[in-house]
């Protein structure tokens, strides 16, 4: 027999407390979900910024290498 089909009897005060507790847990879970989403957004922004920095550094390295190569050829 499925345990979910068995009737349960709970005092009204206990029931109200359980419902209140479940509502509080749901609110905290929603808050945690929002915080997690915000952290993901920040991480994505950070990753994009790091990628931009990597590109800038790679460009600078390439230009320095070109200049160095040009100077070495002139000697």
Notes on the protein architecture:
This protein has about 80 residues and is mainly α. It has 1 helix and no strands. It has one domain (about 10-75). The chain is rod-shaped.
The total tally of domains equals 1
Average residue-wise pLDDT: 91
Number of E-state strands: 0
Cα(first) to Cα(last) distance is 92 Å
Instruction: List the secondary-structure elements in sequence, H or E.
Output: H
Helical segment tally? 1
Segments where pLDDT lies below 50 for 5+ residues? Answer: none
Structural class: mainly alpha
**Beta-strand content bin:** under 5%
Query: What best-fitting shape do the alpha-carbon axes yield?
Result: rod-shaped
SSE layout:
Elements: H1 12-74
Notable characteristics:
75 residues; single chain; rod-shaped; mainly alpha; 0% strand
In a nutshell, what does this entry contain?
This protein is mainly α. It has one domain.
